[in-house]
Specification:
Layout (H helix, E strand, L loop, with lengths): L1 H15 L9 E3 L6 E3 H6 L15 H8 L6 E3 L17 H10 L13 E8 L2 E8 L10 H16 L4 E7 L7 H20 L4 E9 L1 H4 L8 E4 L10 H8 L10 H6 L5 E2 L5 H13 L1 H4 L10
Helix pairs in contact: 5-6
Length: 301
Amino acid sequence: MNWLTNFVRPKLRALVARKEAPENLWLKCPKCEQMLFMRDWEANQEVCTHCDHHMRLRPMKRLPRLFDEGRYELHPLPRVVQDPLKFRDTKRYDARLKEAQSKVEGGKADSSTDALVVASGPMGGRIVVVAALDFGFMGGSMGTAVGEGVVMAAELAVARKAPLIVFSASGGARMQEGILSLMQLTRTTIAVRKVKQAGLPYIVVLTDPTTGGVSASFAMLGDIHLAEPDAIIGFAGPRVIQDTIRQELPPGFQRSEYLLEHGMVDAVVHRHKLRETLIRLIELLMDPVVSEGRGLAVAVR
């Protein structure tokens, strides 16, 4: 009897027991509200397989898709004073930073210590420098660390005679650093100018969202501006603008397609086509004589 109770019965219960499905198997698309299988969604570069909605992609998931065979080198951001103003609201600023750093993708301590990831590697057989903002890190806000990172990326591009590509995704300047964050608008603008003076291409890929101080500085100074579909791009948000001017805004205001129609963006490019489009643009800008006559077929959405 003990054998039946202690061995057979638990085995039978385990066999017929309902297994709970893990909570991270499915995701609901915020646009079409269809359920997406996480593995398929990630394999599709976090683009909805039903409505093609582009969700926010963090740098460490974007970079392997850009470089040849996923090979690239990460460059640590320069060290800065983390909490220069000893700022505190409902929580201390240094505590917020530590919390954000603990949530860096995959727990990789070498990936980034702030809202910017800088990497270099071959793209289409040519070395390029990429600086990608991370909206998942305090809304991609720009403080002194991000400013120093953009300057470092520009200097690296000049030293290696390589094109500089920036992926913007930010809510703007970081309020916890006050005037020091606003100073980065000037510093990043000067850094971009050095790249252009060296005769090197500076390409900006505007992703959702690109607003505030980032859109008021280096994000809108590119030689060429590409944008992902349906990304919010502007300075102030549409609600603030509407409340200020007391008028209804046109449909699609501040979206990628609206900016393309009004000449602020050169092309709206699907995430799956970004790599090939960037390679073609770099080829045209770096080797204009060799590329002459081929024309540019931008892989738009």
